[in-house]
Design brief:
With 136 residues, the chain is an alpha+beta fold. The chain has one domain. Helix content is 39%, strand content 18%. It contains 4 helices and 5 strands; from the N terminus they run H-E-H-H-E-E-E-E-H. It has a 5-stranded antiparallel β-sheet with strand order 1-2-3-4-5, sandwiched between helices. A hairpin with a 3-residue loop joins strand 4 and strand 5. Helix 1 packs parallel to helix 4. It is globular.
């Protein structure tokens, strides 16, 4: 039966939020172009992809971010334009909803504040800043 598997949406959303906090990083224009090129054949004439490409060209100085809210899903967000897309490789692409935008904005704010255990922008996935380095 289709209703045998109950999905607890609040739990799913909280897990996605945590993954965004862990994976958020800034992304360069070159990386964005590469990502768009990787998916160009899958999403030809997609209006969301077109808008992202337009933003890359028109606002190369803007702040762009990359996160992985769950396995095989990528989110790209432009803070300056409050625009984001999700990409499910091989399946689809679409606009980031208000909940997704809120999670990204929260992660950006926390990363910028330097809260312990929060990834800092510019670091790789899963890498966090440790104010008490063990190096001597």
């Amino acid at each position: 039966m289709p209703f045998d598997k109950f999905v607890d949406m609040p739990t799913v959303l909280e897990e996605r939020r945590k993954h965004i906090l862990e994976s958020l990083r800034s992304i360069s224009i070159d990386e964005l172009r590469k990502l768009a090129k990787e998916h160009q054949d899958e999403f030809v004439d997609d209006p969301w992809r077109d808008k992202l490409l337009r933003l890359i060209e028109e606002r190369p100085q803007a702040s762009f971010y990359h996160a992985v809210p769950e396995e095989n899903v990528v989110v790209v967000y432009c803070r300056d334009e409050d625009f984001g897309i999700w990409i499910l490789p091989g399946s689809g692409m679409g606009p980031l909803d208000e909940t997704g935008k809120r999670h990204i904005k929260e992660a950006i704010t926390l990363a910028a504040s330097g809260e312990k255990g929060i990834p800092h922008l510019g670091h790789s996935f899963g890498e966090t800043q440790n104010p008490k380095s063990t190096k001597k």
